[in-house]
Fold this protein.
Amino acid sequence: MIVDHAIISCEPANNFPAIQTFYASVGYFGLIAPSSVVIAARDGDSIVGAARIASENDILVLRGMMIAPSHQRRGLGTRMLWELDKHIGCSECFCLPHGWLQNFYRQIGFTTIAEDISPPHLRERLKEGRIKYPRLVIMRRARSGSIEL
Ligand SMILES: CC(C)(COP(=O)(O)OP(=O)(O)OC[C@H]1O[C@@H](n2cnc3c(N)ncnc32)[C@H](O)[C@@H]1OP(=O)(O)O)[C@@H](O)C(=O)NCCC(=O)NCCS
């Protein structure tokens, strides 16, 4: 069943602690930087999904895409992706997902790229992350709408 009643919103910084608590409840402990754009999904009063766009070394990185187990595979993550899409806009953006989620991120135009053309700090994060999650890949959504002179 599609979760179409959940409300998706862009969160003000004073809600970041509640998002961080949701993250911990699903076993994710990535810290939300104050400058991040944070998108959350609520079912009633409960936060049931969150993701953030972090700005790292002038590069946008989509991180911490988490849907509560009770709400997974019902279209909510896809709805959140389309909200994230608006905030990414025309900018280049990267993410480091599990290999089995490439089709999920392809929905908004991410494509898998070779590590050697990845930003150095993401290459390093990929290397560290693969110790625990060997199937991590790096994906990029290219900048769009720019005019080459
Ligand atoms: C991955 C996640 C964010 C996807 O959100 P979701 O709401 O469950 O996904 P959707 O229902 O929108 O999925 C849309 C499509 O994406 C793909 N997809 C989603 N989750 C997938 C999975 N675990 N494995 C393979 N494909 C998946 C499928 O093609 C799916 O369509 P289908 O259900 O008709 O087969 C969510 O399941 C989640 O939080 N998982 C645990 C944490 C995690 O792995 N986060 C991502 C870190 S990179």
Observations:
- Strands lie at 7-11, 37-43, 46-56, 59-67, 93-95, 111-112, 139-141.
- The pocket of coenzyme A is lined by residues 65-67, 72-78, 97-98, 100-101, 103-104 (CB under 6 Å).
- The first strand starts at residue 7 and ends at 11.
